[in-house]
Amino acid sequence: MKFLSRFGLRALVESFTLRVIVAAVLLPFHLVSLSAAAGQGPNQCTKTSQDVLKSCNSGVQNNYWLAIGKCDNLPSKNERDACGQQANQDKKSGSEECKAQFAARQEICKTLGKDAYNPTINPADFVDKIDNPYFPLTPGTTFVYEGITEKGNEHNEVRVTHDTRVILGVTCTVVKDTVKVDGVLVEDTIDWYAQDKDGNVWYFGEIALEYDGGLVVGLGGSWMAGVDGAKPGIIMKAHPQVGDLYRQEFALGVAEDMAQVLSLNESTTVPAGTFQDCVETKDFSPLEPDIVEHKFYAPGIGNVQTVDANTGKHLDLIGIITE
Q: Where are the domains of the chain?
């Protein structure tokens, strides 16, 4: 999900901030209908996948020629040859990744159907609290997770703030998510969630700051519903059923997380306790087809464990702090 622009960090920050500001000014604070547009083609899902494939391949080509330009500027022939070989390998890997992403999107289309993804967002359909039993967000609550992951010794704190942010006319709860690896801050994220009257919890976007050596080095995965074609998704259904497949976020080429319900009655034991009747989901993204996580949501608590399906490494709830 780390599809960063080739421009500098400052340009990234300025560009994203400008789009957010413009959206906040222009988006109406009343009914926002994102229903299917008139004249929609017979298979918008597949066509969208094809369009993104073309964009991905173009990006690979652009990166290749930029790399070759850098190679040509090296002082010795040996350096230029080695650099060119690496550029060709990167081009091949990039093309294969584009194909894998396309295949993953096509699999999603087989399940979700041919229609364009256009959820209808009506502010009047949302409530001012988030009390879904599998994803409750009570302001003043902090969920603390720890585990040994591929990154190292990970410590994750998810704090539900008292702050709100209006997006597409909907008042969203602001959640602050920080990740430290081996005691060093690597990610600081602000997420926006809201619950509709039926009990579904929607995800309206995030600002994800990536850190290296104490400095912000990226905004990979940042998006806001209503900006640059991004649309909200469902992070947790009101009444999840086995087999349910749904989009958690939709910002093409930036954030395309999906979830599928695997079970409704799992049990798991973590440092915070043993939890029964958990909802288990498979979480994945066509942007990173090889990465799959299984998440366990306990009733009345929310997420209690995240397991890497490939390595078995997991991040566990160790405690909940309330103000």
A: 36-112, 126-322
Return the closest-CA partner of residue 299 out of 119, 131, 172. 131
* pLDDT surpasses 70 at 136: yes
* Euclidean distance between CA atoms 176 and 173, whole angstroms: 10
Are 258 and 246 in contact, with CB atoms under 8 Å apart? yes
The string of pLDDT tens digits covering residues 74-84 is 999 999 999 99
| DSSP per position, 128-171 | S-B--TTS-B-TTEEEEEEEEETTEEEEEEEEEEEEEEEETTEE
- At 41 the pLDDT is 55
Is CATH 2.40.360 the classification given to domain 126-322?
A: yes
Q: How far apart are CA 26 and CA 7, in angstroms?
A: 26
Question: Can you tell me the distance from the alpha carbon of 129 to that of 201, in angstroms, rounded to the nearest whole number?
Answer: 10
